[in-house]
Amino acid sequence: MRTVIFDLDGTLADTSGDLIAAANGCFESLGHGAVLDPASDAATAFRGGRAMLRLGFARLGAEDAEAQVEREYPRLLERYGAAIDVYTRLYPGALDAVEALRSAGFTIGICTNKPEALAELLLRRLGVRGAFASLVGADTLPVRKPDPAPYRAAVERAGGQVERSLLVGDTETDRETARAGGVPCVLVTFGPDGRGVEALGPEALLDRFDALPDLVERLLP
């Protein structure tokens, strides 16, 4: 069965606002202001909680930045889980594209570097968990993307075959995951990096979700 695996943050949904809010909550609890900006720092948000904390502590000139990152990371996850869908929205047309692929006989899954429990929570809050046959998160396996094992697990748990699958993502991590797994990669251009992702050499670029079904048919005939 042909399978399409999606990244979550920055691909299916714009989660940056809630991620930045959680990180800023950590800085504010330490007596700082809102160190990160929801707009200009969105790309960092999509690279994970530790990336946001590192950026913030670097701006603050913290001498023991890495130790503070590790100390605040669990608190960031707790804050994020408590307010995970305040600003988060699916990108326009995302669910329609997923349903179109399912109707065409594709099986659909998610492979994300968000912790699995948080990804489950977010998808259920957004009311779309049932659209995905599998979900593999950052801590589902001992390794995470760009190691190809989580991707392969997402395909297999969805009932598909890796050799008849592709990955839709938004970052270099997704590009490297697809390369390591020997599968095509589609990168979206509506994230913070815009068409800059073209430099990563994906098999295809996606400007809007309504173009995805035809694009997938070409890559997985």
Automatic annotation (TrEMBL):
It holds the Pfam family Hydrolase. One of its GO terms (molecular function) is phosphoglycolate phosphatase activity. Gene3D superfamilies: HAD superfamily/HAD-like, Putative phosphatase, domain 2. GO terms for biological process: DNA repair. Pathway: Organic acid metabolism; glycolate biosynthesis; glycolate from 2-phosphoglycolate: step 1/1. It catalyses: 2-phosphoglycolate + H2O = glycolate + phosphate. GO terms for cellular component: cytosol. It is an enzyme of class 3 (hydrolase). Belongs to the HAD-like hydrolase superfamily. CbbY/CbbZ/Gph/YieH family. This is phosphoglycolate phosphatase. It comes from Tropicimonas isoalkanivorans.
